[in-house]
Amino acid sequence: MDKRFNNKDSSASDETGIPDHVLNTISTDSITYQTYLQSEATIDKDTSRRSIKAQSEILALPPELVQRSIDIISPYVQPRRLERIDEVLNKRTKHTRFLYENPSNPSNVFACLRTLDSFGIQYVDTIVNSDSYTGKAAVNQKRGMRTAMGSACWMSIRQFGSLEEAVRYLREEEGCLIYASDLNPNAKDVRDLVWDVDYEKEEEQQGDEVNTHKRQRPICIVMGNEDRGISDEMRQLADETFYLPMSGFAESFNLSVATAITLAYMSAVSTRGEEDGDALKGPLRPGDLDSHELQCLRLKGLLNSLAQKRMGKALLKKGEYCE
User: Fold this and answer.
1) What pTM does this model have?
2) pLDDT at position 2
3) Contacts with 139 (C-beta within 8 Å, 6 or more apart), sequence order
4) What is the predicted pLDDT for the residue at 1?
5) CA–CA separation, 52 vs 125, rounded Å?
6) Percent helix, strand, coil in the chain (nearest 5)?
7) Rounded distance, CA 227 to CA 217, Å?
8) In whole angstroms, what is the distance from residue 217 CA to residue 55 CA?
9) Which residues contact 133 (CB under 8 A, 6 or more apart)?
10) Quick one: CA torsion of 113, 265, 234, 148, rounded to 10 degrees?
11) Quick check: 94 and 65 in contact, CB under 8 A?
12) Are 103 and 141 contacting, i.e. CB atoms less than 8 angstroms apart?
């Protein structure tokens, strides 16, 4: 069996640090508290490293290994669950992903993930800059938010330690356009955003003819902190900033509500082009995962569906020895 299925390291994100009732009695000026902040920063870095590594490793698995693993695990999963996994994954999209910059309220994060899942978003990223969480309440919220992100086992989530690292991955490796939610004077109404932007042209030689295929750039929607919004750096780096139209006295929406409204607007402009047959258009393109990506996520879904989490490793080892 591939050793990547047999990672014995324990995740630092499972650590709970100082209990809340003890933390509340410690002065923020004390050495103990400063040491605690350093420990939290180490956990954040480890969580970031692991999340990025885990997502790249599963997609790097050989197709034949993924298929063999699916064949081993499938008999131990209820048929209705198998059907449900396939039904959901076949409606997932990778054309649009969301990035949350230093969110603080774990309840909001839970709500956002639930909404993203319901709209078929597979990939979600977060930026967690430890220096942005200094007070006791902020650190406790960050710990809760880390738990919220870790519990979303049906989605592919990465955590970045800095804005620069996140943008580098999104722009250089994924080729994303970055659209950030913001209330600056130059921000566009979300209804005026251009979603179908050509990224590059691919040429294919067929005999004496050269066929040109256009590929469109994926989109990353950025949502800022519940209180501060996006950072100045993100505002400068974004390809576009946008706002959600409002008619009342309130100045902004709750983070989870803003996520839902943004997705609703995106869904409204995502259609199958009549002139291009079944060509998908707009930011939400259900069913656009490639076959290997789909199989990797199917394997992940099967492992998550086992009655006991430890069964997966045991079954895969058994399958290896029975060959």
Assistant:
1) 0.83
2) 41
3) 36, 37, 40, 133
4) 42
5) 10
6) 50, 15, 35
7) 30
8) 21
9) 40, 102, 104, 139, 141, 142
10) -10
11) no
12) no
Question: 52: closest CA among 161, 186, 129, 203?
Answer: 161
**Length of the chain in terms of residues written:** 323
Closest C-alpha among 210, 141, 217 to residue 175: 217
Ranges of the chain whose pLDDT falls below 70: 1-20, 150-151, 199-214, 272-278, 319-323
Tokens of 252: 């902004």
**DSSP-derived pairing of the beta strands 96-101 and 188-189:** unpaired
| Beta-bridge partners for 247 | none
Q: What are phi and psi of 163, to 5 degrees?
A: -65, -40
In angstroms, what CA-CA distances link 235 with 179, 199, 257, 308? 9, 22, 21, 45
Report how far residue 214's alpha carbon sits from residue 274's, in angstroms, rounded to the nearest whole number.
18
Cα distance between residue 239 and residue 223, in whole Å: 14
